[in-house]
Design a protein that fits this description.
This protein is mostly beta strands. It is built from no helices and seven strands. The strands form two sheets. Strands 1-7-6-3-4 form a five-stranded mixed sheet, with no helix packed on it. A two-stranded antiparallel ribbon has the order 2-5. A hairpin with a 4-residue loop joins strand 3 and strand 4. It is globular, with a radius of gyration of 14 Å. The relative contact order is 0.28.
């Protein structure tokens, strides 16, 4: 199953109490817990290096190139990451939010 994910940081706009100001993305990436997921990563504009420290994942996004990595979530919850490359003016507003959900929600 292929799903497209595009992260746009909210940057303090539309943030409610209890949410992370620079950590919230426009939409989370939903992944199943207890299943190894393969991610295919690319970029449309400049080099990016997205990292999810809690998942031990760091992958480069290069324009014109397709990189892959695998992610295994051992517990449900929200996991936060960000771009760790100096990729441009809005570098600090490129968060990643991954939500681990039970695998039963992904079965058709």
């Amino acid at each position: 199953m292929f799903r497209r994910y595009e992260s746009i940081g909210l940057g303090g706009v539309g943030i409610f109490e209890g949410e992370r100001r620079l950590g919230e993305a426009s939409g989370p990436l939903l992944l199943p817990v207890g299943v190894r997921s393969r991610l295919l990563v690319t970029s449309a504009d400049v080099l990016h290096a997205f990292s999810l420290p809690e998942c031990n994942v760091k992958v480069d996004a290069v324009p014109g190139r397709l990189n892959s990595c695998s992610v295994f979530l051992s517990r449900p919850g929200c996991f936060y990451g960000q771009c760790s490359e100096l990729c441009g003016r809005r570098h600090t507003f490129m968060p990643i939010m991954v939500v681990g959900l039970p695998v039963e929600l992904f079965v058709d």
